[in-house]
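STRUCTURE REQUEST FORM
Protein name: Phosphate-specific transport system accessory protein PhoU
Source organism: Kerstersia gyiorum
Requested output: structure tokens
Priority: standard
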Amino acid sequence: MSEHTNRQFATDLETIRSQFLQMGGVVEAMIGEAVDALAGNDPVLFEKVREREKEVNRREVEIDERIGLTLALHQPTAIDLRTLLAVSKMLTDMERSGDEADKIASLARRIHDAEQHRMPVIELRHMANSVITMLRQTLDAFARQDAVQAAAVVRSDKEVDREWKAALRHLITYMIEDPRTISRAIDMIFVARALERIGDHAKNMAERVIYMVHGADVRHTGVKNAERTAAGEEPISIHEKQASDSNNTQS
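Status: completed
Returned output:
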């Protein structure tokens, strides 16, 4: 490529990175506002989340189109190509995270509009803060090309999964003990499930960051392999994994 073409490609790539980070910031705000809407009854928050969801959808299309144009005009290699491919995949997870936040806001509106006084008392704020932190750390890892931090996000998803299962158990207990809470408890289950899915999307994006930095696909290989790859170490072989699983079973 000529010097002019190189400069143009660098500009295009930085624009894509910047737009994706801005999109991530909008989704992060959506999640926080959706959870705040659940805690209170603020119609303004419901509408803010809805408007942000439209913005996220618009940004997804714009960034996707820019990636396609950049690939058509240039011939990126190595990490630049991986960055474009990673962002292209991460866009879907980011947009779906926004969809889940919008779902939480809609459920919050329904819960408050129902004006049911018997609501199961279960605190989801910690779980919400956990997934917001995961998303923020993923964006930071992407911005700094930090595979080690991305691997930490992959591990964090395990804790969010545990919180989701605990919330589900508690809500089922409420429904069994007091059938009058069933309607609200079901809505709360959907909220907790949406938060768990946001955690899954953050994990998926973190795995893409590791691919972007190291060129290794760590999906479905387990947390330890993601951490080893992120640190620049050799992944665990199938035989080593089988031996480790056997030892864990025996112990």
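Reviewer notes: The chain has a mean pLDDT of 88. The chain has one domain: 1-236.
Form closed.
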